[in-house]
Amino acid sequence: MQAAGIDVGSRTIKLVVLDVTSGDIVSYRRTETTFNPHEQCQRILSPRQWDALVATGYGRKLVQENFEAHAITEIQAHALGARKMFPQCKAILDIGGQDTKAIALDERGKVRKFEMNDRCAAGTGKFLEFMATSFQVPIERFGDFALSGNAGLTINSMCTVFAEAEATSLMARGHNPQDIALALHLSVVKRSVSMLKRVATESPLVFSGGVARNRCVATLVAKELNSTILIPPEPDLIGALGAALHCRQRMLSGDSRAQS
Amino acid sequence: MSAAYESMWKDLGLDLAAHDVLLQVLGNAYRDIFLSQKDRPGGMDYFNFVMSEVHGLRIKELLESKKKGKKVIGSFCVFVPEEIVRAADATLVGLCTGADFATDEVDKILPRNTCSLIKSAFGFKLGKVCPYIESADMIVGENTCDGKKKSYEVLNTLVPHLYVMDLPQTKSAEGRAVLKSEYYRFKEAVEGLCGVRIDAAMLKKGIDIVNAKRKAIHRLSKLRKADPAPISGLDALLINQVYFYDDPARFTESVNKICDELEQRIKEKKGVFPQGTPRILLSGCPMAVPNWKLPWIIETSGAVIVGEESCVGERGTRNLTDNSGQTVEELMDAIVERHFQIDCAIFTPNPDRLNHVKEMYREYNANGVIHYGLQFCQPYQIESYSVEKALEGEHIPTLRVDTDYSMEDVEQLKTRVEAFIERLK
């Protein structure tokens, strides 16, 4: 028997399949969400190799309605996934494509408190992607690009549009693009860490979501918190892993029917 | 209903085309949010009817009573003592503040960072779509928050009969004295408007009418303690909203009637959601018609709302007015005393509210509290921090939500609310 978890994010769709008996990961894959998430879900979900499916992410309802799945929120999914990778985990910072979440866990790994960014995408993966484009640096290399910069500059605005204007004016004044990129990363980190401090000051902290791949953000988060942080090898898969774990739990507790 | 009332609306000076749009949006929202609910009590038919006629038959009634000399007073706040209005045989109605309307016009005269409730009052006036404000012989503003206080200065240039009531900000002897003198001043203004002199018998009658309404709501609230919940939070909120519009005697009777039905349901263990459904106490800013966004999100995410710690809810209806006084002075004192206990966030400090939220959480067997702060509402948004701390200090799960009347954040809110409900399971 296999349990699957799908995380339909704003930027990418992730699928993780677990062996129900052992709990081991059997396979995983990713695809772009694009402008047609329904079709992309169909693509990533076929051929069907699993017995039950749990969906999470902003597109969870889409999967629930069209692919006989149960749905849970990203908050719960990340809590389950992070705890699986790091059983001692007490807090989670998840920065995804359009959401940033800070989650505090209790002793048993249950969500104790959480906070999310508001209706604006500032300080998320989208923000960094937007900025990388304006620097003409591929998003995968944007973190390393920023890490090569010198600290000292600050970007004050957290609005994507105004932050770009600030960056542009810094460039016009002849500042190094790397230094400006570092300042942009720092502004993302400051915002995320302040959200984190509102809900969870406990450690160890797991940093998940696609943005955790960005070495500059990861370095700065650890520096701001003045502690080491745990980053899973595939941080963007934590949500899908959590959904798959939830699916497995449901199957083990006898509710093999996928539908809620 | 449109055609039958068209000339009435035209005479009131409404913009018929805009008003049609409003009614259509309202009708669709009502259908999707209320009529789509399962297993609603039969007694909700009355409230469905009231809502379908909220700009129609109810306005016709008001206009007919006006022809007979009865005055209509519009208000925005539960500090406006209805007892005094009813004593003068006038009608008090809540004015429309629950939806964005004519926002372009509003943005011309109010800062963008004004709360939705204030903007809405202006939008309904500027868009000429509120038959209540146009029917009113007197509109009462009240100095609660800075936003309202200052915007009444602007509203005064838009409406002919604005009366502004001052309110205290502290629960002190001086504060009580301010409220008392303001209620006497209001009594005189109402007497002047209605051409009557309010005596003790009239005041007692006013108190009894309003107390009966409150008692019916208290009865409804008690029935919501049951699990499974016999009525949805949305329907109970609607009843609390209709409280501000309907004829009081008819309203009281209809609420009592639905309570009879709910008692029967409780005996049969019949509910609108299965037993064990997570139970939410809503706390915070008032929700005027048709501000149903957050309750709708909560109740379509697998939870049921069992109480509203809000002016449109228990904060507004808590406590009866003592009617045992024999003189105007004694009865006026009782009215002052009753309203002085309202724990609005404009008071500083405001510890009663924290206790009430905790008390309601226990009383209604809630599993968690969702605090609703209207964006740019400084008193409630700032106080939400103290509320959250007080609740978490007692291990009561709490979610703070700040939002407005727009629909753009619905998906984000759903995720938050669903995650909070997952926590409660």
TrEMBL record, chain A:
It comes from the Bacteria. One of its GO terms (molecular function) is metal ion binding. Its cofactor is [4Fe-4S] cluster. Residues 5-245 form the ATPase BadF/BadG/BcrA/BcrD type domain. InterPro entries: ATPase_BadF, ATPase_NBD, CoA_E_activase_dom, Dehydratase_Activator_Redct. Gene3D superfamilies: 3.30.420.40. Pfam families: BcrAD_BadFG. SUPFAM superfamilies: Actin-like ATPase domain (SSF53067). Keywords: Iron, Iron-sulfur, Metal-binding. PANTHER family: ACTIVATOR OF (R)-2-HYDROXYGLUTARYL-COA DEHYDRATASE, BIFUNCTIONAL PROTEIN [INCLUDES 2-HYDROXYACYL-COA DEHYDRATASE (N-TER) AND ITS ACTIVATOR DOMAIN (C_TERM)-RELATED. NCBIfam families: CoA_E_activ. This is 3-hydroxyacyl-ACP dehydratase.
TrEMBL record, chain B:
It comes from the Bacteria. Belongs to the FldB/FldC dehydratase alpha/beta subunit family. This is 2-hydroxyacyl-CoA dehydratase.
